[in-house]
Amino acid sequence: MPQQAPNLKDALLDYVDNITTLRQKIREVREKQLAALKDLMILRHKCQALRQQLSRQTS
């Protein structure tokens, strides 16, 4: 028995579901990127403070 092609309504619903899923994944990735950037800024600040501390100790 040949497979029946999906009708336009089903295809559009699948398309919308896929777009919604992709948008959610993009949102999650952006949130992870922002968290990683925040962590990076904290580490940079700590590194700078440690460099200054080391510089004072060796001076």
Structure write-up:
The chain is 86% helix and 0% strand. The mean pLDDT is 93. It has one helix spanning 8-58. It is mainly alpha-helical. The chain contains one helix and no strands.
Topology (SSEs and partners):
Blueprint: H1 8-58
Distance between the termini: 85 Å
Helix content: over 70%
SS element count, helices = 1
Structural class based on helices, strands and sheet pairing? mainly alpha
- Outline the low-pLDDT stretches: none
Main sheet record: none
The percentage of residues in β strands lies in: under 5%
Radius of gyration: 25 Å
Mean pLDDT: 93
Count of extended strands: 0
What is the 3D form? rod-shaped
Order of helices and strands: H
Features:
86% helix; mainly alpha; 0% strand
Q: In a nutshell, what does this entry contain?
A:
This protein has one helix spanning 8-58.
